[in-house]
């Protein structure tokens, strides 16, 4: 391509890294008091936004699962991180590009100011919900020094997404390290590199970082962890390290074709929800048939039952490119660069930007003590370029999610087909 013909693109890289690990709790007094209600009622716009984000979470999981199941046995994504980064970018979209993003993000019926205000108040609410769980959300905007980014675009991300806004010399060899240092700080060192190098065409990065750390309300005894059989999709078995808890109160739901188990953290505002298909179904069927209504049925019918529990330990990493996924979900026009069909004139005029990259990287580690999770979503702008049973044994492929229970917000979702701790 001739240099003169090179137009500017809006590069969006969604890089979400989720980490489940845990530190031993030294609290001898037992579990903290249970949190049974939000500190305030959700606003109508917050309710609409949470419903939209959860619908997007399910669509993302379904599409990524379909795109990767033949190459990745296990899947872990952070739809909230992706949604928030895309929402920041959405503030710069115009005309048909804004229409496509609004539809893909399930935001029909909400104005852009309503979306922004709902994110601002929801971020504040989730950050401070459970004193026994660390949940942090941070955002930042990094733009090439001297590039004319519209002040209104920078202001809305600063004011509503609490974004740190920085003009950075992208030509400096230290620029990637500067961005990566911010990411590492926000994720407590769990993510230490998002930007390897800054291409000449890059003009803007928008980064969302989410960090979560919480001990199980009822931890597993590491002495009870031992290899146990796990049935793979082909019917064969492998032995995997499996945690165990004796008979105790456990929140469960027994629905057609599936058993649902909810494992809380801290004061029980946050939990991991696990869905195990019965022998007549499969995890792929559960994922592809999943709807927001089905999810609400699963989580809305949880009840306390005495049961033993066995759960595999697992650790995994994913590295995804989400442009095909988002294109399949209706956002293709935002990636239209040659010829230029994308319209991000809310960021810069004249029209010259499009999204060129959406990356999503994840890591998850589940063990006896609890869960630690981080997610980072980076958006970059640049030049054009290309009643239960006595025992619940989770011994076959399953769906899981990390969620905030009182608002219903889904933070992470994943599929485990072959547990591994490597």
Termini Cα gap: 44 Å
CATH names the topology of the largest domain as: Antithrombin, Chain I, domain 2
Low-pLDDT residue spans: 1-7, 12-28, 383-389
Note the beta-strand portion. Answer: 25-35%
Mean pLDDT: 88
What's the number of helices?
A: 9
The helicity comes to 25-40%
Number of strands: 17
Fourth CATH level, the homologous superfamily of the largest domain: Antithrombin, subunit I, domain 2
Quick rundown:
With 422 residues, this protein is an alpha+beta fold.
Describe the structure.
- It is a single chain.
- The protein is 26% helix and 33% strand.
- The protein is globular, with a radius of gyration of 22 Å.
- Mean pLDDT is 88; it is low at 1-7, 12-28 and 383-389.
- It has 422 residues and is an alpha+beta fold.
- The protein is built from 9 helices and 17 strands.
- A hairpin with a 4-residue loop joins strand 9 and strand 10.
- Helix 1 (44-68) crosses helix 9 and helix 3 packs across helix 9 (323-331).
Helix and strand topology:
Blueprint lengths: L7 E2 L2 E2 L30 H25 L5 E4 L1 H12 L4 H10 L7 H16 L6 E11 L6 H10 L2 E6 L6 H12 L15 E14 L10 E6 L5 E19 L2 E8 L4 E8 L5 H7 L2 H9 L2 E10 L1 E8 L1 H9 L27 E8 L3 E14 L7 E3 L4 E7 L4 E8 L6
Parallel strand pairs: 4-5, 11-15
Antiparallel strand pairs: 1-14, 2-14, 3-17, 4-6, 6-14, 7-8, 8-9, 8-11, 9-10, 10-16, 12-13, 16-17
């Amino acid at each position: 391509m001739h240099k003169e013909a090179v137009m500017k693109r809006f590069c969006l890289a969604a890089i979400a890294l989720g980490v489940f690990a845990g530190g031993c709790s030294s609290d001898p007094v037992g579990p903290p008091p249970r949190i049974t209600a939000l500190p305030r009622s959700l606003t109508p716009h917050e309710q609409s936004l949470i419903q939209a984000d959860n619908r997007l979470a399910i669509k993302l999981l379904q599409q990524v699962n379909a795109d990767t199941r033949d190459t990745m046995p296990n899947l872990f994504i952070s739809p909230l991180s992706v949604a928030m980064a895309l929402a920041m970018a959405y503030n710069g979209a115009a005309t048909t590009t804004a229409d496509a993003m609004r539809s893909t993000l399930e935001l029909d019926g909400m104005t852009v100011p309503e979306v922004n205000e709902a994110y601002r108040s929801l971020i504040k609410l989730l950050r401070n919900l459970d004193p026994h769980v660390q949940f942090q959300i941070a955002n930042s905007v990094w733009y090439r020094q001297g590039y004319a980014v519209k002040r209104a675009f920078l202001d809305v991300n600063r004011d509503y997404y609490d974004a740190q806004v920085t003009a950075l010399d992208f030509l400096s060899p230290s620029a990637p390290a500067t961005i990566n240092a911010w990411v590492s700080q926000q994720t407590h060192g769990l993510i230490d590199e998002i930007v390897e190098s800054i291409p000449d065409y890059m003009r803007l990065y928008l980064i969302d970082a989410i960090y979560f750390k919480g001990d199980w309300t009822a931890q597993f005894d590491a002495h009870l962890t031992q290899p146990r059989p796990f049935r793979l999709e082909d019917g064969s078995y492998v032995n995997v390290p499996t945690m165990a808890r004796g008979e105790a109160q456990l929140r469960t739901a027994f629905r057609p074709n599936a058993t649902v188990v909810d494992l809380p953290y801290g004061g029980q505002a946050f939990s991991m929800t696990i869905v195990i298909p019965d022998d007549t179904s499969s995890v792929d069927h559960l994922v592809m048939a999943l709807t927001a209504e089905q999810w609400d049925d699963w989580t809305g019918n949880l009840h306390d039952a005495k049961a033993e529990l066995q759960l595999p330990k697992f650790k995994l990493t994913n590295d995804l490119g989400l442009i095909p996924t988002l294109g399949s979900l209706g956002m293709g026009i935002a990636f239209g660069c040659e010829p230029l069909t994308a319209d991000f004139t809310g960021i810069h005029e004249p029209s010259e930007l499009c999204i060129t990259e959406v990356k999503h990287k994840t890591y998850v580690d589940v063990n006896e003590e609890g869960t630690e999770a981080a997610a980072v979503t980076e958006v970059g702008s640049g030049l054009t370029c290309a009643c239960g049973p006595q025992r619940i044994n989770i011994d076959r492929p399953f769906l899981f999610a990390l969620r905030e229970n009182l608002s219903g917000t889904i933070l992470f979702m994943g599929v485990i087909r072959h547990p591994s701790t490597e």
